[in-house]
Amino acid sequence: MKRQVEQAKARVKGNAAGRLIVVVWVAFAGQLVAQTDRVRERDPSWTAPAKDAEQSNPFTGRASIVTGGQKVYGQRCHTCHGSQGQGTTRAPSLVAADVQAQTDGALFWKISGGNTRAGMPSFSFLPGAQRWQLVLHLRRLATEVD
Ligand code: HEC
Questions:
Q1: Superfamily of domain 50-145
Q2: Which end of the chain is more exposed for a tag (fewer CB within 10 A), N or C?
Q3: Whole-model pTM?
Q4: Average pLDDT per run of 10 along the chain, which is 146 residues long?
């Protein structure tokens, strides 16, 4: 009789442990799904100095130029920011309103210097013209997505 009680207790304990494992596992898996679903947020303290933000894009209004930016984007940016700039788990959206609200100069400054601490590489090695073309391409992506 005593043994049976011990066995029953052990079973209850075993079940409780099993349930705990399932709960922990589900919580963990849920976390993973939530993380992979999430588009990465940007570092709010990363902003261009006023003199850089004021720079204007030498290619504004020249639609034919945008193909250059599209090409470079496809080579260097889409793996992190997504083919349409929609963002991925590695990098934030570039078509979001808070990005598009920034000036061409500010985006140029961000692309040039990067924010390596937060995972955005510096692209100062690209010719300036290509960086301005990239900004133009980001503007176009935003109008295509909406
Ligand atoms: C290795 C991944 C990676 C690559 C490649 C990359 N980026 Fe980024 N980018 C990031 C991350 C991460 C951030 C967010 C940094 C932060 O936390 O502020 C970012 C931020 C930005 C921002 C600022 C967005 C904002 O919220 O103000 C711009 C603009 C940008 N990237 C453009 C580009 C362009 C254009 C290219 C290609 C030339 C590129 N990125 C390539 C990871 C990447």
A1: Cytochrome c-like domain (1.10.760.10)
A2: N
A3: 0.77
A4: 66 66 59 58 86 93 83 97 96 96 98 96 97 96 76
